[in-house]
């Protein structure tokens, strides 16, 4: 099975390992970001999903290209299907989620809060009588504090963001304008593919001049929720969950068999891993309208990545 489980390359400088990405800071102010196939959940790595890293990198590439007229992004180049060279940024301490529907399962989602009886949240008001998965009158931003220390994200209002000096008022104005414009573009393009972009997460940073720049990823299956447009209305009428790219086979399988935060995780069946891989590939093709081209060369994924990054080795 062709997987990129790690991408430790000793010749590259300033290594930093994330949950699913390997990062190397270059002396020119750029950063090498390698997306591995690791699947992270429950604060641990569960397994590796073939082609997951390539799908996420190439889906983000598709969207970065289609939105660069709206907002500057961190992309410098793509030397490999799993790799982006990006500008090194100072990441802003606010995570920006844009939502177009009353949906979500996390503790900070508007549906979770709505079901608890809250109607005032994130500096906005929602009316009584709304149903699960109902379209909102207009997309809304639900910002949270970004927990760099591993803590929990906390909901914020725009006024709290400024009062707590997380962002200046000017930064918030720019960032919120970008986020809503990006989401609008995303929904329009997704609709052409028969998809609904339900909600998504954006991460922004600033460069050495203080310019706000879109970082990380955009509109990928991991950062976004998509529904199938052709079945949404019927699902909504029936009160059932809309059809989506359900990638949580592995997560659900593990949760049914142990306490994943405490217990040793049992070995995950390969058919489940391959099923999840197919979902990622299908998501790429449905979102972009392009055929997924896997690397079927004789090289291992790591050997290919190394070869494509050799020119960044010191002294080369």
From TrEMBL:
<dbReference type="GO" id="GO:0006189">
    <property type="term" value="P:'de novo' IMP biosynthetic process"/>
</dbReference>
<dbReference type="InterPro" id="IPR028923">
    <property type="entry name" value="SAICAR_synt/ADE2_N"/>
</dbReference>
<keyword id="KW-0436">Ligase</keyword>
<dbReference type="GO" id="GO:0004639">
    <property type="term" value="F:phosphoribosylaminoimidazolesuccinocarboxamide synthase activity"/>
</dbReference>
<comment type="pathway">
    <text>Purine metabolism; IMP biosynthesis via de novo pathway; 5-amino-1-(5-phospho-D-ribosyl)imidazole-4-carboxamide from 5-amino-1-(5-phospho-D-ribosyl)imidazole-4-carboxylate: step 1/2.</text>
</comment>
<keyword id="KW-0067">ATP-binding</keyword>
<keyword id="KW-0658">Purine biosynthesis</keyword>
<dbReference type="InterPro" id="IPR018236">
    <property type="entry name" value="SAICAR_synthetase_CS"/>
</dbReference>
<keyword id="KW-0547">Nucleotide-binding</keyword>
<dbReference type="Pfam" id="PF01259">
    <property type="entry name" value="SAICAR_synt"/>
</dbReference>
<dbReference type="GO" id="GO:0005524">
    <property type="term" value="F:ATP binding"/>
</dbReference>
<feature type="domain" description="SAICAR synthetase/ADE2 N-terminal">
    <location>
        <begin position="15"/>
        <end position="267"/>
    </location>
</feature>
<protein>
    <recommendedName>
        <fullName>Phosphoribosylaminoimidazole-succinocarboxamide synthase</fullName>
        <ecNumber>6.3.2.6</ecNumber>
    </recommendedName>
</protein>
<comment type="similarity">
    <text>Belongs to the SAICAR synthetase family.</text>
</comment>
<dbReference type="GO" id="GO:0005737">
    <property type="term" value="C:cytoplasm"/>
</dbReference>
